[in-house]
Structure formats: C-alpha cells, structure tokens
Amino acid sequence: MDLIPLPQTVDLREDAPPYAFGPRPLLATGPGAGGTARWLRRELGAATGWDLPEAGPGAAADIRLRLDPEGLARQGPEGHRITVDATGVELAGADAAGLFWAAQTLRQLLGPDAHRRAPLGGRGGRVWTLPYGTVADGPRFGWRGLMLDVARHFLPKDGVLRAIDLLTAHKLNVLHLHLTDDQGWRVEIKRHPRLTGVGAWRPRSRWGHRASPLWNETPHGGFYTQDDIREIVAYAAERHVRVVPEIDLPGHSQAAIAAYPELGNTDVVDTTALGVWDDWGISENVLAPTEAVLRFYEGVFEELLELFPPEVSPFVHVGGDECPTTQWHASARAQARIRELGVAGEEGLRSWFIRHFDTWLARRGRRLIGWDEILEGGLAPGAAVSSWRGYAGGIAAARAGHDVVMCPEQQVYLDHRQAGGPDEPVPIGYVRSLEDVYRFEPVPPGLPARAAAHVLGAQANVWTEVMENRSRVDYQVFPRLAAFAETVWSRLPEPASRDYAGFETRMAGHYRRLDALGVEYRPPGGPLPWQRRPGVLGRPIEGVPPVV
Ligand code: ACM
Asked: Which atom of ligand 1 is found nearest the CA of 463?
C-alpha cells in the first residue's frame, strides 16, 4: 500500500480478495473512542455517504474502535493497530491520539476518494474495500510540527482549520502559529485593541523579495478574533493537534509599535510616524527595554494563556530571534537601563526580555520556547529552543539539558525553493527538493543519548513574505510536508540509506490523496503556468553548502 508516513509494520494481503463494506456499515465505539468516532462520521461519512450508526448491543459492527493501552504498550504513546479480517476492521489505540492516527491510516487504506467531501456517484454508488491484514504503528517523535507565518501574509481562519486537517492527514501534531511580526499583528487582544485595529493591516506590500522593485498596492490584513482562536484550538484539540502561539519579542515588533508608539525607542525615533511595515527583512524598530513594555506584554500573554489552555499547549513561543540593537545602542534610555540592570550591553537587554517572560510563564505553569538566539542569555531549566540557524543551537541547548525542536533553515524551511529552475515562483533561499527534505534527520549524528533525549522532534517552518495567498502556501508546503512527516513519524535509516525511490513510488498514490483533498502542491514536473510568478524577484542562494 502507499501509506504515508511509512508505518512500523505492515502485513496486508494485497493478493487476496479484500474485505468489502456493505452499504450501511455500523460503528462500535469503545470507552474513550468518542472523538475518533465523531471524526469518522464527519469525514469518512462525507466521503462515503455512510451514516455510521452505532451498532446496538450484540450487533456486529463493521468498524470497531477501542483503546488498548496495555496491548499496545510496545508501540508507545500514540501507538495503534489496525486489523482487517472477515468481520470488518478493528482500530485499537494505545491512547486516544493513537486511535485517531489509526483512523487516518484507515482512510488511506480506503483509497484517494475517501479523502473527498462527497461520494462520487452518490450514496451507495460504490463498494468500499480494505485489504485483509494488520498495520501496527507509532511515532518516532512526540513533536511533529509545522510553523505557519500568518503575520507576513494573513491566512484566514478557514485556511488554518484546513491546515490542521492537512497536518492530521500526515499524522503531524503541532501547529506553531507565528502571530506577530513587523508586518502585522494577527490576534485580538481585548485590553490593547489597537494591536489589531492598527497593527493588523498595512496599506501595501512589496511584491517579491526585498530586491524586487515592485509593489502590490492592495491593502493587506486580517486577524483572528478571540473566538476564532478558541475555535481553532478546539478544532485542533479534537484532532490531537497542539497549537503553539508565538508572540515575537523584543524584535520583529514594528506592527505593535505602530499601534502603540510608546512601545518603541521614542528617544531615538519618532515612533508616532511609524506604520505597519510594508517591506520585508528585519526592522530596526524594536521594543524599548522599559518596565511599561513588560507590563504591556504581560497583559498580552495573560489573554493568550486564557485562549491556549495548558492541556492544548504548555508551550508559549516568545520569538527572540533577529533583534537588531542599533536603536538600543543609540538610546540614552536603553543605555541607562543596561547600567541599571547590570546586563552585558545591548545583547544583555534581549536576554533580559526573554528571561523575564521565562520566569513569568514558569510561574503560571507554562513553558517558554523561543528561537535559538534565546540560548545566548541563559535560560530557566524548563525553557525549550527552536533550533533554526542550523543544528548548532539545538545541540548546545540539548547538551545543556533543554528540550529542543529541530527546524534548521538549511533543511526544513519550506519557503526555500524546491528546484533550481527559473520557473519556481519568487525563488528564495537554498534549493531544497523533495528528496532533500526526505533525507532530513532531526537528531544530529554524534549527539550523546542523554542530549538526544531532549530532541522533542522537529518542525517545518513556512515564512510567507512571498506567499500572498493559500495557493502559494500550498505550493511551498506540498509535497514536501509528506516527506517531512516521514522523517518525524517513521523510523527511517540514516539519511544516506533512505529508500527515496520507494518513497517516490508511494508518493504516486499520495498525490491522488492530495488531489482529492484539494491541495495545490508543486507537481513533480514543476509549476503549472498559474503557479509561476514571472518577473517577480526572489533571493536565491546559490552553491551555499548546508551548515550542520
Ligand atoms: C527565523 O527564521 N527568524 C526564526
């Protein structure tokens, strides 16, 4: 079968006649299996036309759901087993998440059309079949993520819900939302209404990467209301996906400063004249190192913690990356602050911000996570690091006993172009093909076992400066997310020994699933005419070897 990600063990009888469902299959929902039953009725029910009523006592159910923590202990958390025989199919999960992933495998086994939203040929228009046998599975890592930058280009709420569905179709379980940046603030904060009133839109955007002379004069914006966030979080939780919110500070903050000029370094720039940034890059307009700014952001995080309860995400991402210190260098107020706090220069101010929220979050039972720059100032033991500037930050963090999420830009930044040809839309960064992503390894070789145990997993990151809409995001993310999913779910051999040809063969079937799901992936032969952006400049990096 074309299962993606590759399961641990597959024993399916593809030579024998399959199990054939009747027109009105029954479902048996064991204790703790309600979420997966709801998902099957909603998603599989839509694709097949089945109502999937509950089998009454004593009635034989075609699909049986149950939790079996003891029987599946060997598979570990999220483990599961699917068994198809003459009586139908049983899905067993080591836990509720495992059972849910089993349902995803069931849908893949039923074929591409099981991923549609309505049955072709009407209800009862076809006989659905499953091969006899078993699939036993469980993930390699607990953190299997995708980061979406919804700040540079806003992804409306339905796009986020769809992204959650697409994650789950690949057994990925973390959605990291980059909610704020220089170019936009995307989450409603009731006590600071101008964050979205002013900060959620910009009058125009550069069209292409920084070097491009073109502008898109259409205003761009949007934000999630608090109820939108509650809906997203609940939708994700029902599907065993954690949503990790990111509020980036003290850099990447121009949208916030445009909304509330007092957040900026007012003794060196007239922040009242600032707008939400319409260009790409790293803005020098960073937060002022004042107590008032800390109080302002504590208010932001107070509302955020209420929206993202700890069972959904114990982690809160505070950014911490790419904070230029030019304004702090020039600011008498910042310099006085450096002396008063006794910190090591301007760099010390950045860690002072991060350490403040590290303690603040820890007191509220949460864990801080930030980009690997945050390691430079020393962290509380519970804090975790997103290693993006290669593996080095993650290695240092793991050796120091911090949990790490590997997301090295040289390997898994999906904004980077997928091929070297001139047809790639607004090509930026390194060429990172489907095969390159398939050979990504989250745990660097040579990392001692004790440090390697701190690698929670990995995530692919998608920065959207040159992705103006959902179609462009689809193009960058797919099919590479399928390869990424296999690197974090499956137990693949070391990169050079991976069976990429076998993966490509399975991808042939997976493209049909993506078609049925309506994903506008990059076709293997290159972009379709309407996926190109002729004349819009990117920023390719040629011949730069990956940094490990
Ligand atoms: C990042 O790419 N600036 C985290």
From this structure: 2
Domain boundaries 9-137, CATH class: alpha beta
Q: How far apart are CA 177 and CA 169, in angstroms?
A: 19
Distance between CA atoms of 79 and 91, rounded to whole angstroms?
11
The distance from CA 378 to its chain's CA centroid, rounded to whole angstroms, is 26
Asked if residue 345 has pLDDT above 80, the reply is: yes
Which residues does 157 contact at the CB level (< 8 Å), separation at least 6? 224, 228, 231, 232
- Within the chain, all domains assigned CATH 3.20.20.80 are found at 143-531
Global pTM reads 0.97
For residue 43, the tally of other CB atoms under 10 A from its CB is 21
Q: pLDDT, tens digit, for every residue of 148-160?
A: 999 999 999 999 9
Q: Residues 263-294: pLDDT tens digits?
A: 999 999 999 999 999 999 999 999 999 999 99
Ligand 1 atom, smallest distance to 371 CA: 4
Residue nearest to atom 2 of ligand 1 (CA): 388
Ligand 1 atom 3: the closest Cα is on which residue? 321
Distance of CA 37 to CAs 41, 46, 59, 386, Å? 6, 13, 17, 35
pLDDT tens track for 2-24: 999 999 999 999 888 899 999 99
The ligand 1 atom at the shortest distance from the C-alpha of residue 319 is 4
Widest CA span in the chain: 79
When the candidates are 3.40.50.360, 3.40.50.1220, 3.20.20.80, 3.30.420.480, the CATH number that belongs to 143-531 is 3.20.20.80
Given a cut of 60, whether residue 415 has pLDDT beyond it is yes
Q: Mutation test of ligand 1: which of 178, 246, 371 has the most ligand atoms closer than 8 Å to its C-beta? A: 371
pLDDT tens, 355-391? Answer: 999 999 999 999 999 999 999 877 878 899 999 999 9
- Using omega within 30 degrees of 0 as the cis cutoff, is the peptide bond preceding 381 cis? no
Q: Which of 95, 181, 248, 373 is catalytic?
A: 181
Nearest ligand 1 atom to the CA of 252 is 3
Q: How far is the CA of 114 from the centre of ligand 1 (A)?
A: 37
- What value does the mean pLDDT of the chain take? 96
Query: Which residues of the chain form CATH 3.30.379.10?
Result: 9-137
Q: Which of 165, 278, 322, 504 is catalytic?
A: 322
C-alpha of residue 397 to centroid of ligand 1, in Å? 17
What is the predicted pLDDT for the residue at 283?
98
Confidence class for position 548, pLDDT limits 50, 70, 90: very low
Cβ < 6 A, ligand 1 pocket:
321-322, 371, 388
181 is catalytic: yes
